[in-house]
Amino acid sequence: MDISSCNPINSQVLRLFINADIVARDKNGNPVLLVDIRTSTKDPQINTQITDLLAQAHGNIPFGMLADIEKISIFKWGTEHWLEPICVLTTADALSNYEPEFRKKRIFYDYFVSLMEAWLSDLAYQWQSSHPPFLEEIKKIGLLEKLDHGMNEQEVDVVEVKIS
Predict the structure, then answer these.
(1) How many Cβ atoms sit within 10 Å of the Cβ of residue 24?
(2) Fewer CB in a 10 Å sphere around the end CB: N or C, the chain?
(3) Domain count, the chain
(4) Mind listing the pLDDT tens digit for each residue in 128-139?
């Protein structure tokens, strides 16, 4: 066996201790998006938490997402103003395809996480719709190609990323 074709023993892996509600991975299993979900309106300090995690990943996790009942804010590492959202979406518009009563009923945390995961999976596979909500916006910022045929994990405490 050619040793050079194996995973190098001393390849660098960064282990991030996080508390992400969802981690989206690309089709190769690399983390591409950290999602923090709140059932109440976000505390501005939470923006700092997600951007701090992106900074700790040194660009190896390109996107962060904060979602509350009103809006979904997406952050992209490496942009000029990466501490500010690159895109802000209306949560009800994103999730009403998966819960038609989203605007009318109280949404509890576990269900909110499931709805967010359904939307992200729909973006990755178009299983519910050939044109999921905000498909063009997600494509425009470069996140759609990262999500394409990837997978999601819920309640993640540790993420390992290969340092490039």
Answers:
(1) 26
(2) N
(3) 1
(4) 888 999 999 999
